[in-house]
Amino acid sequence: MAIGAGMSCVKYLLFCFNLLFALTGLIILIVGIWVEANSHPYIDLTDESFYTTGPVVLIIVGVIVFIVAFFGCCGAVKENHCMIVTFAVFLLVIFIAEMAVGIAGYVKHDDIQNSIVRHLNTTIKDYPTNKEVQSTFDILQTDLQCCGIYGPGDWANNTLPIPDTCCAGREIKEGAAAACTPESPGFHTIGCLSKLVPFFNDMAMLLGGVGLGIAMVQLLGVIFACCLARSIRSEYETV
Protein backbone atom coordinates (compact mmCIF):
# COMPACT_ATOMS: atom_id res chain seq x y z
CA MET A 1 0.00 0.00 0.00
CA ALA A 2 1.42 3.40 -0.95
CA ILE A 3 0.85 6.60 0.95
CA GLY A 4 1.07 10.25 -0.14
CA ALA A 5 4.37 12.03 -0.65
CA GLY A 6 3.90 14.15 2.49
CA MET A 7 3.17 11.15 4.67
CA SER A 8 5.97 9.22 2.99
CA CYS A 9 8.30 11.91 4.32
CA VAL A 10 6.74 11.51 7.77
CA LYS A 11 7.25 7.75 7.47
CA TYR A 12 11.00 8.09 6.93
CA LEU A 13 11.24 10.80 9.55
CA LEU A 14 9.55 8.42 12.00
CA PHE A 15 11.99 5.65 11.09
CA CYS A 16 14.97 7.98 11.64
CA PHE A 17 13.37 9.19 14.86
CA ASN A 18 13.25 5.62 16.13
CA LEU A 19 16.98 5.25 15.66
CA LEU A 20 17.35 8.42 17.73
CA PHE A 21 14.74 7.05 20.12
CA ALA A 22 16.81 3.90 20.68
CA LEU A 23 19.82 6.12 21.41
CA THR A 24 17.84 8.17 23.96
CA GLY A 25 16.81 4.89 25.58
CA LEU A 26 20.47 4.01 25.99
CA ILE A 27 21.16 7.46 27.48
CA ILE A 28 18.25 7.08 29.92
CA LEU A 29 19.46 3.62 30.94
CA ILE A 30 23.05 4.80 31.50
CA VAL A 31 21.96 7.85 33.50
CA GLY A 32 19.59 5.75 35.64
CA ILE A 33 22.28 3.17 36.41
CA TRP A 34 24.91 5.86 37.10
CA VAL A 35 22.67 7.77 39.52
CA GLU A 36 21.58 4.56 41.26
CA ALA A 37 25.19 3.42 41.71
CA ASN A 38 26.51 6.80 42.88
CA SER A 39 23.66 7.64 45.25
CA HIS A 40 23.49 4.18 46.84
CA PRO A 41 26.02 4.80 49.68
CA TYR A 42 24.15 7.92 50.82
CA ILE A 43 20.54 7.13 49.94
CA ASP A 44 19.69 6.26 53.56
CA LEU A 45 20.57 9.80 54.60
CA THR A 46 17.32 11.16 53.17
CA ASP A 47 13.73 10.05 53.55
CA GLU A 48 12.82 11.42 50.10
CA SER A 49 11.65 8.40 48.09
CA PHE A 50 12.42 10.22 44.83
CA TYR A 51 16.12 9.36 45.14
CA THR A 52 15.34 5.64 45.25
CA THR A 53 12.43 5.50 42.79
CA GLY A 54 13.62 8.10 40.27
CA PRO A 55 16.69 6.20 39.00
CA VAL A 56 14.74 2.91 38.96
CA VAL A 57 11.99 4.50 36.85
CA LEU A 58 14.58 5.74 34.35
CA ILE A 59 16.23 2.30 34.17
CA ILE A 60 12.87 0.64 33.47
CA VAL A 61 11.97 3.30 30.92
CA GLY A 62 15.35 2.87 29.21
CA VAL A 63 14.74 -0.86 28.76
CA ILE A 64 11.17 -0.35 27.53
CA VAL A 65 12.36 2.24 25.02
CA PHE A 66 14.17 -0.45 23.00
CA ILE A 67 10.97 -2.49 22.74
CA VAL A 68 8.97 0.59 21.76
CA ALA A 69 11.60 1.57 19.17
CA PHE A 70 11.16 -1.87 17.59
CA PHE A 71 7.42 -1.32 17.21
CA GLY A 72 8.04 2.12 15.74
CA CYS A 73 10.61 0.96 13.19
CA CYS A 74 8.58 -2.05 12.05
CA GLY A 75 5.36 -0.05 11.94
CA ALA A 76 6.93 2.73 9.87
CA VAL A 77 8.64 0.39 7.38
CA LYS A 78 5.63 -1.94 6.95
CA GLU A 79 3.10 0.91 7.15
CA ASN A 80 1.26 -1.16 9.77
CA HIS A 81 -1.47 0.90 11.43
CA CYS A 82 -1.73 -1.34 14.52
CA MET A 83 2.01 -1.32 15.24
CA ILE A 84 2.25 2.44 14.80
CA VAL A 85 -0.71 3.04 17.14
CA THR A 86 0.92 0.66 19.69
CA PHE A 87 4.14 2.63 19.32
CA ALA A 88 2.33 5.95 19.87
CA VAL A 89 0.53 4.66 23.00
CA PHE A 90 3.74 3.27 24.53
CA LEU A 91 5.56 6.48 23.68
CA LEU A 92 2.86 8.56 25.34
CA VAL A 93 3.08 6.44 28.53
CA ILE A 94 6.87 6.82 28.57
CA PHE A 95 6.48 10.56 27.96
CA ILE A 96 4.23 10.86 31.03
CA ALA A 97 6.65 8.79 33.18
CA GLU A 98 9.63 10.93 32.14
CA MET A 99 7.71 14.14 32.71
CA ALA A 100 6.84 12.91 36.22
CA VAL A 101 10.51 12.14 36.98
CA GLY A 102 11.60 15.45 35.48
CA ILE A 103 9.11 17.55 37.44
CA ALA A 104 9.80 15.62 40.66
CA GLY A 105 13.54 16.21 40.16
CA TYR A 106 13.08 19.97 40.12
CA VAL A 107 10.59 19.93 43.00
CA LYS A 108 12.79 17.79 45.25
CA HIS A 109 15.72 20.07 44.46
CA ASP A 110 14.45 22.43 47.17
CA ASP A 111 13.44 19.82 49.77
CA ILE A 112 16.62 17.80 50.11
CA GLN A 113 18.44 19.91 52.73
CA ASN A 114 15.62 19.70 55.29
CA SER A 115 15.35 15.96 54.69
CA ILE A 116 19.09 15.35 55.23
CA VAL A 117 19.27 17.56 58.34
CA ARG A 118 16.25 15.82 59.84
CA HIS A 119 17.73 12.37 59.24
CA LEU A 120 21.26 13.18 60.43
CA ASN A 121 20.05 14.95 63.59
CA THR A 122 17.92 11.92 64.41
CA THR A 123 20.64 9.32 63.87
CA ILE A 124 23.89 10.98 65.01
CA LYS A 125 23.17 10.25 68.68
CA ASP A 126 22.91 6.53 67.85
CA TYR A 127 26.42 6.42 66.36
CA PRO A 128 28.06 4.52 69.28
CA THR A 129 25.33 1.86 69.57
CA ASN A 130 23.94 1.37 66.05
CA LYS A 131 26.35 -0.35 63.64
CA GLU A 132 24.31 0.67 60.60
CA VAL A 133 24.35 4.35 61.60
CA GLN A 134 28.04 4.10 62.41
CA SER A 135 28.79 2.59 59.01
CA THR A 136 26.77 5.29 57.21
CA PHE A 137 28.56 8.16 58.99
CA ASP A 138 31.97 6.54 58.54
CA ILE A 139 31.46 6.07 54.79
CA LEU A 140 30.11 9.60 54.48
CA GLN A 141 32.95 11.25 56.41
CA THR A 142 35.62 9.20 54.64
CA ASP A 143 34.33 9.59 51.06
CA LEU A 144 33.37 13.27 51.28
CA GLN A 145 36.19 14.22 53.70
CA CYS A 146 33.82 15.94 56.09
CA CYS A 147 32.99 15.77 59.80
CA GLY A 148 29.65 16.04 61.57
CA ILE A 149 26.52 17.64 60.13
CA TYR A 150 27.42 21.34 60.16
CA GLY A 151 30.94 20.74 61.44
CA PRO A 152 33.05 18.74 63.93
CA GLY A 153 31.31 20.49 66.86
CA ASP A 154 28.18 18.40 66.25
CA TRP A 155 29.88 15.41 67.92
CA ALA A 156 30.61 17.37 71.09
CA ASN A 157 27.08 18.80 71.03
CA ASN A 158 25.81 15.22 71.25
CA THR A 159 28.35 14.36 73.98
CA LEU A 160 30.22 12.05 71.63
CA PRO A 161 33.95 11.83 70.81
CA ILE A 162 35.08 12.76 67.32
CA PRO A 163 35.13 9.57 65.18
CA ASP A 164 38.37 8.39 63.61
CA THR A 165 36.85 8.91 60.14
CA CYS A 166 37.00 12.69 60.71
CA CYS A 167 40.74 12.40 60.11
CA ALA A 168 42.35 11.55 56.77
CA GLY A 169 45.51 10.40 58.52
CA ARG A 170 46.63 9.87 62.11
CA GLU A 171 50.01 9.59 63.75
CA ILE A 172 51.17 6.23 65.07
CA LYS A 173 52.24 6.45 68.70
CA GLU A 174 53.60 3.43 70.56
CA GLY A 175 52.24 1.08 67.89
CA ALA A 176 48.70 2.48 67.96
CA ALA A 177 46.94 5.19 65.99
CA ALA A 178 46.49 8.46 67.88
CA ALA A 179 42.97 9.70 68.59
CA CYS A 180 41.39 11.95 65.99
CA THR A 181 41.38 15.55 67.25
CA PRO A 182 41.13 18.98 65.60
CA GLU A 183 44.93 19.13 65.83
CA SER A 184 45.41 15.83 63.96
CA PRO A 185 46.92 15.86 60.45
CA GLY A 186 44.25 15.71 57.77
CA PHE A 187 41.42 16.67 60.14
CA HIS A 188 38.16 17.34 58.28
CA THR A 189 36.89 20.78 59.26
CA ILE A 190 33.93 20.99 56.88
CA GLY A 191 30.50 19.67 57.83
CA CYS A 192 29.00 16.90 55.70
CA LEU A 193 25.78 18.82 55.00
CA SER A 194 27.60 21.37 52.83
CA LYS A 195 28.87 18.54 50.63
CA LEU A 196 25.80 16.30 50.67
CA VAL A 197 23.27 18.93 49.57
CA PRO A 198 25.10 19.83 46.32
CA PHE A 199 25.63 16.10 45.67
CA PHE A 200 21.91 15.30 45.90
CA ASN A 201 20.92 18.52 44.11
CA ASP A 202 23.15 17.56 41.18
CA MET A 203 21.49 14.13 41.12
CA ALA A 204 18.01 15.68 41.15
CA MET A 205 18.88 18.17 38.42
CA LEU A 206 20.40 15.42 36.27
CA LEU A 207 17.33 13.20 36.63
CA GLY A 208 15.03 16.16 36.02
CA GLY A 209 16.97 17.43 33.03
CA VAL A 210 17.19 14.03 31.35
CA GLY A 211 13.53 13.26 32.07
CA LEU A 212 12.16 16.57 30.73
CA GLY A 213 14.65 16.94 27.87
CA ILE A 214 14.12 13.51 26.37
CA ALA A 215 10.36 13.68 27.02
CA MET A 216 10.18 16.72 24.72
CA VAL A 217 11.97 14.80 21.96
CA GLN A 218 9.62 11.86 22.38
CA LEU A 219 6.59 14.12 22.15
CA LEU A 220 7.62 14.76 18.54
CA GLY A 221 7.61 11.00 18.02
CA VAL A 222 4.02 10.79 19.25
CA ILE A 223 3.02 13.51 16.77
CA PHE A 224 4.81 11.82 13.87
CA ALA A 225 3.30 8.44 14.75
CA CYS A 226 -0.24 9.85 14.97
CA CYS A 227 0.14 11.60 11.61
CA LEU A 228 1.40 8.43 9.94
CA ALA A 229 -1.28 6.24 11.54
CA ARG A 230 -3.98 8.65 10.41
CA SER A 231 -2.61 8.65 6.85
CA ILE A 232 -2.51 4.84 6.73
CA ARG A 233 -6.04 4.62 8.11
CA SER A 234 -7.25 7.10 5.46
CA GLU A 235 -5.60 5.02 2.72
CA TYR A 236 -7.38 1.90 3.96
CA GLU A 237 -10.73 3.71 4.00
CA THR A 238 -10.29 4.95 0.43
CA VAL A 239 -9.41 1.49 -0.91
Automatic annotation (TrEMBL):
Keywords: Disulfide bond, Membrane, Transmembrane, Transmembrane helix. It is a multi-pass membrane protein. The chain crosses the membrane at residues 12-35, 55-77, 84-107, 203-229. Pfam families: Tetraspanin (PF00335). SUPFAM superfamilies: Tetraspanin. It is found in: Membrane. GO terms for cellular component: plasma membrane. The keyword Transcription regulation does not apply. Disulfide bonds join C146-C180, C147-C167. Belongs to the tetraspanin (TM4SF) family. This is Tetraspanin. It comes from Papilio xuthus (Asian swallowtail butterfly). The lineage of its organism: Eukaryota, Metazoa, Ecdysozoa, Arthropoda, Hexapoda.
